[in-house]
């Protein structure tokens, strides 16, 4: 990465689509919106790697960047996967094809493209983008904790502008931190279970899966005449946000419980990392502003900070969520490749 202009391509790999961006050497993104194409991950690694190659070629054509000027690729995917991009032997919701188990997607893409590839999980990428976008020139002197609420609960810890990855790449798995049920669950409310086997962890409450499997079945016993009582749970869980946007009492009670769980999580973070910022991402970012702001405020209210922390800490939403993964992956790749070039 010498004195000539260079570019990093960020590839955000999802269950149905890839999104691509290009980051130039001055820190600007050359794609203002989405550059999407089919991901084909359910067809197995071969089809998915070809789809990522196509995404790269398309975004270079759109931006007019020559492939010879690309210094490297930032790739993010959903987990579970190792820090180096080896998909879990158990696969995941997206990587259901049997060939994905234990597949090294980073090395495979690097070999296919002939370019350095730096891997991030999607929550880490989104959190890294939020950190740099919010703090700008101060990003390398600031810290943050992010909770990304989706089908599961992703998260990340960013310290001095870099994602904390840990010895095995499993740092920032905030969704699987267990919470004390006292003050969180109602009297008689069953302990929520998580896919990972934990009981009453953050993901079992503050995720779409947690709503469907744990929260809705309980709250529908309190609101037996609710319209969603007649709907299948998967549909009802996805529809719940639209009810909350209309101030529906049951929906607000469920999201209040989620806000408590996230507040407990951030309270723990305040005592462990004492970050400058707490970011909330996921589907809430696409919600109507009044509900979105209400939920962020409820999370803030349920986060117990010391007086000194209250003076400096900020609570904010992850910006540009649909683009955050690709952009964050590009940032991660840029920083790693810079370190390699410097010899550190």
From TrEMBL:
Cross-referenced Gene3D superfamilies: 3.30.420.40
InterPro entries for the chain: ATPase_NBD, ROK, ROK_cs
Similarity remark: Belongs to the ROK (NagC/XylR) family.
Annotated protein name in UniProt: ROK family protein
């Amino acid at each position: 990465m010498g004195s000539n202009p260079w570019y990093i391509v960020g590839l955000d790999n999802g269950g149905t689509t890839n999104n691509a961006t290009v980051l130039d050497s001055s820190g600007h993104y050359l794609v203002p919106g989405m550059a999407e194409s089919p991901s084909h991950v359910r067809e197995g690694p071969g089809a998915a790697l070809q789809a990522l190659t196509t995404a790269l070629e398309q975004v270079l054509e759109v931006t007019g960047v020559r492939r010879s000027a690309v210094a490297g690729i930032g790739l993010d995917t959903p987990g579970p996967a190792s820090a180096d991009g080896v998909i879990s032997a158990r696969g995941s919701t997206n990587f259901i094809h049997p060939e994905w188990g234990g597949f090294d997607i980073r090395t495979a893409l690097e070999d296919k493209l002939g370019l350095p590839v730096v891997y991030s999980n999607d929550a880490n990428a989104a959190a890294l983008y939020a950190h740099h976008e919010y703090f700008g020139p101060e990003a390398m002197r600031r810290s943050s904790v992010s909770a990304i609420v989706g089908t599961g609960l992703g998260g990340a810890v960013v310290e001095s502008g870099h994602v904390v990855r840990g010895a095995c790449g499993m740092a920032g798995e905030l969704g699987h931190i267990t919470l004390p049920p006292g003050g969180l669950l109602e009297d008689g409310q069953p302990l929520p279970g998580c896919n990972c086997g934990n009981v009453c962890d953050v993901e079992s409450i503050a995720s779409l899966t947690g709503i469907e499997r744990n929260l809705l079945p309980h709250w529908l016993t309190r609101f037996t005449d609710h319209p969603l009582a007649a709907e299948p749970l998967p549909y009802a869980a996805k529809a719940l946000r639209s009810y909350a946007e209309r101030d529906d009492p049951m929906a607000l009670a469920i999201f209040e419980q989620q806000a408590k769980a996230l507040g407990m999580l951030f309270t723990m973070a305040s005592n462990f990392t004492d970050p400058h910022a707490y970011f909330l991402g996921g589907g809430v970012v696409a919600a109507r502003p009044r509900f979105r702001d209400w939920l962020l405020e409820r999370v803030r209210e349920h986060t117990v900070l010391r007086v000194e922390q209250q003076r400096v800490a900020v609570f904010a939403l992850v910006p540009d969520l649909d683009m955050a993964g690709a952009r964050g992956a590009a940032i991660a790749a840029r920083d790693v490749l810079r370190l390699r070039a410097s010899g550190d």
